[in-house]
Amino acid sequence: MSLDALFDPRSVAVVGASANPAKWGYWLASGALAGRRRRTVHLVNQRGGALDGVPFLPDLGAVPTPPEHVVVAVPPPQVRSVVVDGLAAGARCFTVITSGGSDPAEERELAALVTAHGGRLLGPNCMGVVDTTTELRLSWGDFPAGSVGLVSQSGSLALEIGRLLARAGQGFSRFVSLGNQRDIDAADALDALIGHEGTRVVAAYIEDFRDGRRLARTLTAAYAAGKPVLLLTLGRSAASGRAAASHTGALVSARAVVAAVCRDAGALLTESAGELADTAVLLAAAGERIGRLPIPRTDRAGGRPAPPRPLRVSVVGDSGGQGALAADALVSRGLDVPVLDEPTRIAVAAHLAGRAGGGNPVDLAGAGEADLRNYARIARALLEAGDTDATVLTGYFGDYATANPAQAGLECGVARELGEAARKAGRVLVVHTMARDTPALAVLREHGVPVYERIEQAATALAHAARLPCTPPQPPAALPRRSPGRRVADGAYESVRELLAAHGLAFPVAEFVTTADGAADAARRRTGYPLALKAMGLAHKSEAGGVALGIADEAALRAAFARMGAATGATRYAVERMAVHPYSVELIAGVRYDPAFGPVVMVGLGGVTAELHADTALALAPLTPGRARELLLSLRHAALLTGWRGAQPVDLDAAADALCALARAAVEHPELAELEVNPLLVHSGGALALDAHGVLRGRQVYGRSAVR
User: Fold this and answer.
1) Rounded to whole angstroms, what are the CA distances from 145 to 137, 229, 577?
2) Could you tell me whether strands 531-535 and 50-51 are parallel, antiparallel, or unpaired per DSSP bridges?
3) pTM tops 0.85, yes or no
4) Does residue 675 contact residue 691 with C-beta atoms inside 8 Å?
5) Domain 585-696 belongs to what topology?
6) What is the pLDDT of residue 540?
């Protein structure tokens, strides 16, 4: 359903309005009155009174015309009756500020009542909504106008972000405080920002992802619409607080899942309110130019994607020290400050005095003081040359008129030239300056040049922007219906092995036994020698002495069986044919069910050192073979798979198929909270699962065979 009544209603009624500035009702009422040129405003308070010449009405029944949007700021026991009255009066949208007093069931019932009448509900327990493009201010606090749309589960954090944006000459197009999300949730609010003409950058602080896959589709849609999304979240969730029942559980954190979703959807995950605001300023000012940066992200030569080329940055500093520190800040964040091409060095040096050279960083060495126009000349030479993607000007520019007001006109003119040079070249220009709130800085911002007070802000914003993908991301695949086959009874190796084999995973020949005689018979009939003996029913058998490898004959098998029985007390064992392949690599592959995002696939370097390496890649299940292959090649140690130092490369297609089969099994069996193969032995001839186990939902860890 449309959210037009939320952001641009024809009429608003504030129930709980107040003339006391210490009360929420005052800020909601005064904010509503600020937009009365655009809409009708009614103020309701059963005790009477007035604000700014507008009398308070006793209840919604006294409102002369139907209020399209009702803001509810009354004590908890009165909320339901106000909503009922609002629906009777014809309201289509409710923003419920009230917090406390209502249990979740009552809140859900309230939302159901509103939606059953074709309406929408924001909250309860929210801070309100602001749309600076429609003069709607239904919240407490100041919200500077700008082109950043924010959806937040924290009102105070929104105020902080707003102040940071304001200091940089930016602000909000829209702000939505989600509250308890009983109806309008993060995906709804973000969808509304994507289609909003006044919003250039979308930002969100989300703690509770609810339907994570729907949100992932929204993030993908935002990228497709040219609206970059900046996400800020916590590093904790119910999933991450649960004790890990497997290697997969230990290696897949809630934040890692969010990071993977953002990567695949084209969104940027930030670490703080400051990072979010700084990056939003850059993207709002120069987002179109950043989207056109010619940064080749992949090179398919040899069948393996090359790492993305770093964003190349040229630096112009008023002093050698400032330029060098700027270069250090950029390089430490993964950006490149390259040597300039000879023609560019010559073009830059033409505007420098004395022995100053045209290196990178460029040291102005007084050229700016000699003639302010040199700032524009040198920046233009760098922007038009094309050997770098962005230029950072660091130092004093913007502050000359503070010391000498006679230079105000000239400095503003140079600022205008800088902005025009960046626009004409189609490249990014960023200014770091010790000045603050001067006319020249205002001119820079008007011409799409972001300005920062600290060089690390500029460097971080550029580094985040450089992570935007060049190719449109694909929305997550829909989850297929559950398999009509039988549910997995337990997570033990036998059961999981049978399940995965049915989905196409290959395992060594094996037989499960309870006695030493049975083991010897299995070796004669099925596996041959050498073989592996593994005790069933233990969580970590390697440490407990529950695995023996390379058993060469029956005598060694019986001896191993006796030792293992004494050490583990196991009553059931697996006798497996040894799998030995030259140039093989052990991987770990797992799927963990995330409460928000559903099944999440993890692949990484495996075996007993899986947690030590912590070299993993994540994606939402199910997978396509192409996506599975990309995950494998994104590992830090992917060179081990493609032929490290002359080794034979593994069969990547077989490895990818194994990942797809594992993901498919997990998707079709949601009764499994975790499903894991470790190790998955990949080699030039295929992929072989050497161990597997699962964890049923609501259960403790089930017995699994040890990794080897």
Assistant:
1) 11, 18, 69
2) unpaired
3) yes
4) no
5) D-amino Acid Aminotransferase; Chain A, domain 1 (3.30.470)
6) 65
